[in-house]
Amino acid sequence: MITVQRTRTISAHLTRVWDVLADFDRLAVWADNADHTSWLDDPRPDGEMLGRARRVQAGRMVLIERITMWEPPARLAYDLAGLPPVVKSAVNEWRLAVDPGNAERTVVTLASHVGCGPRPPQQLIARLVGRRLAGASETMLEGLAAHLAASVTSGPAPCDSSPASIEGVQR
């Protein structure tokens, strides 16, 4: 298993950052590398998030992301399905921590764990996929920071009850 991670300090309180990440089907609102996102299942009556899944359209690629860890407001992880078959497993894991120097800032780490197998050629493929996911992580962290900064200056967005908003988010 290969792990790559990217970290960014965001000028927003930890709970605000968590609220954006926890709105799991709205990724396309703030991540420039996601064109469309939508839930694949209905909310559970008990509010449980483990096992819930979203569909992410990113260009011509479609990913299914199933939540495997939900620890508000500090950790969120999900499996990535839909990558090339050579990738045996892929997980994105978000970790949030209060910036020790400023409680109104959050240190956000996005780690991607990629497994392609134990043999050297498989490890090489895992490293290449990891680099690609690291680039996607940088784009998501940048979008998250920009989204939170814009929400501070412009205030909350008005409620949108259009069918596209209800079924999922489109760019």
Give the strand line-up of the largest sheet. 1-7-6-5-4-3-2-8
Total helix count?
4
Q: Provide the helix percentage.
A: 25-40%
Question: What's the total count of β strands?
Answer: 8
Q: Specify the biggest β-sheet.
A: 8 strands, antiparallel
Bulk shape: globular
Indicate the structural class.
alpha+beta
Radius of gyration computed on alpha carbons: 16 Å
What is the CATH superfamily?
Answer: START domain
CATH fold annotation:
Alpha-D-Glucose-1,6-Bisphosphate, Chain A, domain 4
User: Number of folding domains?
Assistant: 1
What is the class in the CATH system? Alpha Beta
Which consecutive residue ranges, at least 5 long each, have pLDDT under 50?
Answer: 155-171
First-to-last CA distance: 33 Å
Name the average pLDDT: 90
If you had to describe this structure to a student in words, what would you say it looks like?
- The model is unreliable at 155-171 (pLDDT under 50).
- The protein has helices at 14-22, 27-30, 120-154, 163-167; strands spanning 2-10, 36-39, 53-58, 61-71, 75-81, 89-99, 102-115, 169-170.
- Strands 1-7-6-5-4-3-2-8 form an 8-stranded antiparallel sheet.
- It is 31% helix and 37% strand.
- It is built from 4 helices and 8 strands; from the N terminus they run E-H-H-E-E-E-E-E-E-H-H-E.
- It is α+β, with helices and mostly antiparallel strands and 171 residues long.
